[in-house]
Amino acid sequence: MLDKNQIAQRIAKELKDGYYVNLGIGIPTLVANFIPEGITVTLQSENGLLGMGPFPLAGEEDPDLINAGKQTITTLPGSAFFDSAMSFGMIRAGKVDLTVLGAMEVSENGDIASWKIPGKMVKGMGGAMDLVASAKNIIVAMMHTNPKGESKLLKKCNLPLTGIKCVKKIVSNLAVIEVTDNGFRLLERAPGVTVEEIQNKTEGKLIVEGDIPEMIF
After folding, report:
1. Is residue 84 part of a domain?
2. I want to staple 72 with a disulfide (CB 3.0 to 4.6 A). Which of 4, 46, 61, 144 is the partner?
3. Catalytic-labelled residue, pool 14, 37, 46, 105
């Protein structure tokens, strides 16, 4: 199985030169540490920053530079700061090419639940609902199962939805999966993980076609 950094590293392979990318809270923020060499990607944080860099080294943190998850970050040459109105104007205008989000659940038709568990206190939905409604491409970074071992890739989400039919691809600790009109399609498996294990831990319809390669980093 992959750890959180390996999930982020695999997602970074989906980035393309010239992309404007928003990274959600949690595993997605780690993608900033794995930008492939030779391409230029501009990372946007919805609290008001274009040009976010990797996490700072220990002792070099600036408490005034944080991402939407309140983690300290770095900036790159040419970075720009602005208010939330400008930030969400960019998002709602479709200027973000790719959004990487965490999720509690994803359904086989691409619905995502990522912001609330009924009965538990929540700080707010953040920018996720704007992002899933406006971004051109949504990739989810998540654990394949919950702490009880139950699948988080479902026929239908049980939790309140963040967005409907918006997720294009999932990178979990077990697999890379594409969301299609016919269900989840298995593209790659984590090193040492079998197709059977992925099938057993995926509640939604899983399409397996031919030999499924292991992920390459």
Report:
1. yes
2. 61
3. 46
22-31, 36-45, 117-126: lowest mean pLDDT where?
Answer: 117-126
**46 flagged as catalytic:** yes
The total number of structural domains that make up the chain: 1
pTM over 0.90: yes
Question: Can you spell out the DSSP letters for 131-147?
Answer: HHHH-S-EEEEE-SB-T
Q: Do residues 204 and 154 touch, judged by C-beta distance below 8 A?
A: yes
Q: What is the CATH number of the domain that holds 110?
A: 3.40.1080.10
Strands 98-102 and 138-142, bridge-based pairing:
parallel
For residues 171 and 102, give the distance between their C-alpha atoms in angstroms, rounded to a whole number. Answer: 10
User: Among 23, 1, 144, which residue's Cα sits nearest to residue 11?
Assistant: 23
Lowest-pLDDT range, 11-20, 88-97, 118-127, 168-177? 118-127
Q: Which domain holds residue 159?
A: 4-207
Three-state SS at 40:
coil
